[in-house]
From TrEMBL:
InterPro entries: Bact_OM_lipoprot/Surf_antigen, Gly_zipper_2TM_dom. Residues 73-110 form the Glycine zipper 2TM domain. The keyword Lyase does not apply. It comes from Ahniella affigens. GO terms for cellular component: outer membrane. This is Glycine zipper 2TM domain-containing protein. Pfam families: Rick_17kDa_Anti.
Amino acid sequence: MLSLSAALAVSQAGFAYQDSSVEYDYADVLSVDPIVETVSEPVERQVCRREPVQTYQPQYAYQDRRHRDPTGATVLGAIIGGALGNTVGRGDGRRAATIAGAVIGGAIGHDNARRGRYVETGGSYRTHYEDVCSVQTDYQEEERVVGYDVTYRYNGRVYHTQTDHHPGDQIRVEVAVSPAF
Protein backbone atom coordinates (compact mmCIF):
# COMPACT_ATOMS: atom_id res chain seq x y z
CA MET A 1 0.00 0.00 0.00
CA LEU A 2 2.86 2.33 0.72
CA SER A 3 4.42 1.87 -2.73
CA LEU A 4 1.11 2.64 -4.47
CA SER A 5 0.69 5.94 -2.62
CA ALA A 6 4.35 6.82 -3.26
CA ALA A 7 3.97 6.16 -6.99
CA LEU A 8 0.79 8.23 -7.06
CA ALA A 9 2.52 11.13 -5.32
CA VAL A 10 5.44 10.97 -7.76
CA SER A 11 3.17 10.98 -10.87
CA GLN A 12 1.11 13.86 -9.55
CA ALA A 13 4.23 15.91 -8.94
CA GLY A 14 5.21 15.61 -12.61
CA PHE A 15 8.19 13.37 -11.99
CA ALA A 16 9.00 10.07 -13.61
CA TYR A 17 6.54 7.23 -13.23
CA GLN A 18 6.63 3.64 -14.30
CA ASP A 19 4.20 1.91 -16.73
CA SER A 20 4.86 -1.79 -17.39
CA SER A 21 8.67 -1.61 -17.29
CA VAL A 22 8.81 1.60 -19.37
CA GLU A 23 9.26 4.93 -17.63
CA TYR A 24 7.98 8.27 -18.87
CA ASP A 25 8.82 11.80 -17.83
CA TYR A 26 8.38 15.33 -19.11
CA ALA A 27 11.11 17.49 -20.63
CA ASP A 28 11.13 21.25 -21.06
CA VAL A 29 10.62 22.42 -24.66
CA LEU A 30 13.24 24.96 -25.72
CA SER A 31 12.01 25.75 -29.25
CA VAL A 32 9.35 24.68 -31.74
CA ASP A 33 9.80 25.41 -35.45
CA PRO A 34 7.04 24.54 -37.92
CA ILE A 35 7.92 22.35 -40.90
CA VAL A 36 6.27 24.06 -43.88
CA GLU A 37 5.57 22.33 -47.18
CA THR A 38 4.33 24.05 -50.34
CA VAL A 39 1.42 22.18 -51.90
CA SER A 40 -0.08 22.88 -55.32
CA GLU A 41 -3.85 22.36 -55.21
CA PRO A 42 -6.08 22.20 -58.33
CA VAL A 43 -8.86 24.79 -58.36
CA GLU A 44 -11.58 24.40 -60.98
CA ARG A 45 -13.53 27.36 -62.30
CA GLN A 46 -16.10 27.80 -65.01
CA VAL A 47 -15.21 30.23 -67.79
CA CYS A 48 -17.97 31.45 -70.10
CA ARG A 49 -17.87 33.57 -73.24
CA ARG A 50 -20.53 34.74 -75.68
CA GLU A 51 -20.11 33.47 -79.22
CA PRO A 52 -22.11 34.44 -82.30
CA VAL A 53 -24.21 31.70 -83.90
CA GLN A 54 -25.76 32.11 -87.36
CA THR A 55 -28.98 30.34 -88.28
CA TYR A 56 -30.81 30.33 -91.59
CA GLN A 57 -34.47 31.40 -91.45
CA PRO A 58 -36.20 30.27 -94.67
CA GLN A 59 -39.29 32.08 -95.98
CA TYR A 60 -42.09 30.17 -97.66
CA ALA A 61 -44.91 31.17 -99.96
CA TYR A 62 -48.01 29.20 -100.91
CA GLN A 63 -48.12 28.28 -104.60
CA ASP A 64 -51.59 27.67 -106.02
CA ARG A 65 -51.52 25.06 -108.80
CA ARG A 66 -55.23 24.65 -109.50
CA HIS A 67 -54.94 26.28 -112.93
CA ARG A 68 -52.06 24.08 -114.02
CA ASP A 69 -52.55 21.29 -116.59
CA PRO A 70 -52.37 17.94 -114.66
CA THR A 71 -52.09 15.71 -117.78
CA GLY A 72 -48.36 14.99 -117.56
CA ALA A 73 -48.49 14.17 -113.86
CA THR A 74 -51.56 11.93 -114.38
CA VAL A 75 -49.90 9.94 -117.20
CA LEU A 76 -46.65 9.58 -115.24
CA GLY A 77 -48.53 8.41 -112.14
CA ALA A 78 -50.49 5.85 -114.22
CA ILE A 79 -47.28 4.45 -115.75
CA ILE A 80 -45.56 4.10 -112.41
CA GLY A 81 -48.67 2.64 -110.72
CA GLY A 82 -49.19 0.16 -113.60
CA ALA A 83 -45.54 -0.97 -113.44
CA LEU A 84 -45.81 -1.55 -109.70
CA GLY A 85 -49.14 -3.39 -110.08
CA ASN A 86 -47.63 -5.61 -112.79
CA THR A 87 -45.17 -7.03 -110.25
CA VAL A 88 -48.02 -8.45 -108.12
CA GLY A 89 -49.90 -11.70 -108.79
CA ARG A 90 -50.06 -14.15 -111.77
CA GLY A 91 -52.27 -14.47 -114.81
CA ASP A 92 -55.59 -12.59 -114.55
CA GLY A 93 -54.63 -11.37 -111.07
CA ARG A 94 -51.58 -9.69 -112.55
CA ARG A 95 -53.69 -7.90 -115.19
CA ALA A 96 -56.14 -6.73 -112.53
CA ALA A 97 -53.26 -5.50 -110.32
CA THR A 98 -51.70 -3.66 -113.31
CA ILE A 99 -55.00 -1.91 -114.09
CA ALA A 100 -55.64 -1.06 -110.44
CA GLY A 101 -52.06 0.27 -110.08
CA ALA A 102 -52.43 2.42 -113.21
CA VAL A 103 -55.75 3.88 -112.00
CA ILE A 104 -54.49 4.58 -108.46
CA GLY A 105 -51.14 5.99 -109.73
CA GLY A 106 -52.94 8.24 -112.23
CA ALA A 107 -55.28 9.53 -109.49
CA ILE A 108 -52.38 10.28 -107.18
CA GLY A 109 -50.44 12.04 -109.95
CA HIS A 110 -53.53 14.10 -110.94
CA ASP A 111 -54.24 15.09 -107.32
CA ASN A 112 -50.61 16.00 -106.68
CA ALA A 113 -50.44 18.19 -109.79
CA ARG A 114 -53.51 20.17 -108.71
CA ARG A 115 -52.69 20.48 -105.02
CA GLY A 116 -51.14 23.73 -103.83
CA ARG A 117 -47.89 23.65 -101.96
CA TYR A 118 -45.46 25.79 -100.07
CA VAL A 119 -42.22 26.64 -101.76
CA GLU A 120 -39.17 28.34 -100.36
CA THR A 121 -38.88 31.86 -101.72
CA GLY A 122 -35.67 32.85 -100.00
CA GLY A 123 -34.56 33.45 -96.48
CA SER A 124 -32.09 35.23 -94.33
CA TYR A 125 -29.31 34.50 -91.90
CA ARG A 126 -29.81 35.69 -88.35
CA THR A 127 -27.10 36.04 -85.76
CA HIS A 128 -27.72 35.46 -82.09
CA TYR A 129 -25.31 34.92 -79.25
CA GLU A 130 -24.96 31.87 -77.05
CA ASP A 131 -22.95 31.35 -73.88
CA VAL A 132 -20.25 28.74 -74.34
CA CYS A 133 -18.79 27.55 -71.06
CA SER A 134 -15.89 25.30 -70.14
CA VAL A 135 -14.18 24.25 -66.93
CA GLN A 136 -10.60 25.39 -66.50
CA THR A 137 -8.24 24.08 -63.86
CA ASP A 138 -5.75 26.43 -62.25
CA TYR A 139 -3.22 25.43 -59.62
CA GLN A 140 -2.96 27.43 -56.44
CA GLU A 141 0.09 27.07 -54.25
CA GLU A 142 -0.50 26.92 -50.54
CA GLU A 143 1.88 26.52 -47.63
CA ARG A 144 0.92 23.95 -45.00
CA VAL A 145 2.44 23.03 -41.68
CA VAL A 146 3.14 19.29 -41.86
CA GLY A 147 5.00 18.91 -38.57
CA TYR A 148 7.24 20.56 -36.02
CA ASP A 149 10.97 20.47 -35.26
CA VAL A 150 11.15 20.37 -31.48
CA THR A 151 14.23 21.08 -29.35
CA TYR A 152 13.93 20.02 -25.71
CA ARG A 153 16.12 19.58 -22.60
CA TYR A 154 16.08 16.55 -20.36
CA ASN A 155 18.52 15.98 -17.47
CA GLY A 156 20.78 18.80 -18.69
CA ARG A 157 21.11 17.43 -22.23
CA VAL A 158 19.51 18.94 -25.38
CA TYR A 159 17.60 16.72 -27.85
CA HIS A 160 15.79 17.18 -31.15
CA THR A 161 12.73 15.43 -32.55
CA GLN A 162 9.90 15.95 -35.01
CA THR A 163 6.21 15.80 -34.08
CA ASP A 164 2.98 16.07 -36.02
CA HIS A 165 1.49 18.50 -33.48
CA HIS A 166 2.70 21.43 -31.39
CA PRO A 167 3.90 19.99 -28.06
CA GLY A 168 3.38 23.05 -25.87
CA ASP A 169 5.80 23.92 -23.03
CA GLN A 170 6.65 20.31 -22.16
CA ILE A 171 7.02 17.13 -24.13
CA ARG A 172 6.52 13.60 -22.82
CA VAL A 173 9.64 11.48 -23.15
CA GLU A 174 10.30 7.77 -22.67
CA VAL A 175 13.12 7.02 -20.27
CA ALA A 176 14.90 3.73 -20.86
CA VAL A 177 16.83 2.44 -17.92
CA SER A 178 19.01 -0.57 -18.37
CA PRO A 179 21.81 -1.98 -16.30
CA ALA A 180 25.35 -1.21 -17.37
CA PHE A 181 27.79 -4.15 -17.33
